[in-house]
Amino acid sequence: MIIDLVNKIVNGDFKAISKAISIIENNYSESEELIRKIYPYTGKSYKIGITGPPGAGKSTIVFQLTKLLRREGAKVGIIAVDPTSPFTGGSLLGDRVRMNELSLDGGVFIRSMATRGSLGGLSKRADEAGDILDSAGFDYIIFETVGVGQSELDVVKVADTIVVVLVPESGDSIQAMKAGLMEIADIFVLNKSDREGADVAVNSIKSVLSFRQKLDQWEINVIKTIASSGQGVDELLNEIKKHRDFLFRTGEFYKRRKDKLKFKIKEIIEERLRKNFWTIEREKILDEKISSLELPKANPFEIAEELIENFYQKNFLNETKSFH
Amino acid sequence: MIIDLVNKIVNGDFKAISKAISIIENNYSESEELIRKIYPYTGKSYKIGITGPPGAGKSTIVFQLTKLLRREGAKVGIIAVDPTSPFTGGSLLGDRVRMNELSLDGGVFIRSMATRGSLGGLSKRADEAGDILDSAGFDYIIFETVGVGQSELDVVKVADTIVVVLVPESGDSIQAMKAGLMEIADIFVLNKSDREGADVAVNSIKSVLSFRQKLDQWEINVIKTIASSGQGVDELLNEIKKHRDFLFRTGEFYKRRKDKLKFKIKEIIEERLRKNFWTIEREKILDEKISSLELPKANPFEIAEELIENFYQKNFLNETKSFH
User: What sections of the protein cross the membrane (chains A, B) (predicted)?
Assistant: First the structure.
């Protein structure tokens, strides 16, 4: 079953890609086998992350970028994990309709992913959805996510080039700084740059950037755009390509990818340990303990330790055979 | 050392409380011992969670609520984990100054916590900061957090009564629904209710609520406020107390607190397992594997499994003695 799905994905079948992402999103039992099988086909896509505060025009930027990339003949996959994005059902229906038009030619795949109920697994699932698109032969994968909230921000960190979109509103750049956006940006976009205060905003971003510790030789630029008309988006695409060339030239590309692989391995391990630990039997022990205890005297640490002891003892008796 | 700190906290010493929260926030090695020792003194505070989109006026609501509670002689602890909140350094400095004035009488403690770099531990740390304030004898603890982002939303779930603050802006209630705010609210506040569209907004919230599955007998009301002038905040406080009475009368209070205890135990276990797993030695094995491998051929699952096997084998050899 999974092997059929993998074959279809690798051949670029949109239906199969959709199905695969649903399997990952819902964390069905087949999801691990799927990712395992797909993994050897990954590593060819270039990943772009687009983030910024709600209302900055991220989706319109994604739309215009995609249009330019399509003109070059590139295949583009889009993963939107932004609860405020039109792609995930927000209010700017116009963008959504236009984007769906783009996808009619078969060169664009768009998928929105739910951001709630994820318990910290959001970035892992978005990353895996990216792996599916990667193995399906998309040249570029764009991750769009709102720059508020730690788990949302983690999503964009899987990208090779991270673009932070801001608008000339006052205090915006300060908020961005506080939210950690300043630290992750490879490129800044000041969108809606025909609005009042645009030059002030550019200068304020630049002055914050001047305090940022330079970790590498890459110089972070601020690109002015008016995404609604497409103005400046060609310049943004050039800047993204310049950054890509920089990453390859300096070897930074592989270094970053290895860092991400390490993070991924840690996630797999923690998920596995959690699964091994929370057997039906051990869940039952916990439920029984909790229903019989008296608040507020209960000490969560003691209960936790009893369960951990039980875990290691079972493991000792069964040796390691039941753990993978 | 820790026992001295605990004694000071229990006696309501603000400096000691501050120090304790810093220990938790930075996850210093003493943090677990601290929480263990403080735990027997907890369970007396009533916890209120205030959430909603950026700009809804959450901080002003918190300020006005605190003022009313102080008039009743209640001690109030505030934990703000909102990157857009003035308490955490946002733009509305006025609120911050006013709030600091409130705290001069010794009956109000305010603490903001960083939201970034937390890797999923944000709600755990906020909860533990709440335990510190609880043991220090605060009657009410208010958690303020922005209603965007999963980890931010998890913070508010530690509260007994959850208040969702919205404003009359169009689409706001729909966004709230998408972000999962509709599901967690015990009370709604429509702030800035003198603005155009207030009644439409109230009706739209009510109509969404009418579709919500009733899990208990509590009827969710929408309270109209103008927080800047304090209007409606007394009504909100009454509604919070009505909800508290409801929780006690129906036994729901202890049921919810037990659910939270269960969640806490699970968090402790997972943190412990992670610590046991990631010894310096095992980190080193991972780093060596990663530096020697070839991208994109590397399979993260295989590396993860090797490390897990190593973990269980060590555990087998050492029996359980080194794990707590």
Answer: none
Domain positions in chain B are: 2-266, 278-317
Instruction: Please tell me the CATH superfamily of domain B2-266, with its number.
Output: P-loop containing nucleotide triphosphate hydrolases (3.40.50.300)
Query: For B145-180, how does the pLDDT look when each residue is reduced to its tens digit (9 = 90+)?
Result: 877 666 677 788 889 999 999 988 755 555 665 557
Torsion of CA B307, B310, B315, B316, to 10 degrees: 140
Predicted interface score ipTM higher than 0.85: no
Is A42-255 assigned to CATH 3.40.50.300? yes
- Is A306's Cβ below 8 Å from some Cβ in B? no
Residue A99 backbone dihedrals phi, psi, to 5 degrees? -65, -40
Which parts of chain A fold into alpha helices (H)?
A: 2-10, 14-25, 31-38, 58-71, 93-102, 122-135, 150-156, 172-178, 181-184, 198-211, 233-250, 252-277, 280-292, 300-317
Contact between chains at B115 and A150 (C-beta distance less than 8 A):
yes
Q: How far is A49 from chain B (nearest CA, A)?
A: 17
Decide: A313 and B323 in contact? Cβ < 8 Å.
Answer: no
**What is the residue-wise DSSP string for B221-249?**
PEEE-BTTTTBTHHHHHHHHHHHHHHHHH
Measured CA distances, A78 to A81, A98, A110, B42 (Å) = 10, 14, 5, 48
Q: Which pLDDT tens digit goes with each residue over A43-84?
A: 999 999 999 877 788 889 999 999 999 999 999 999 988 655
Given an 8 Å threshold on Cβ–Cβ distance, is A295 in contact with B120? no
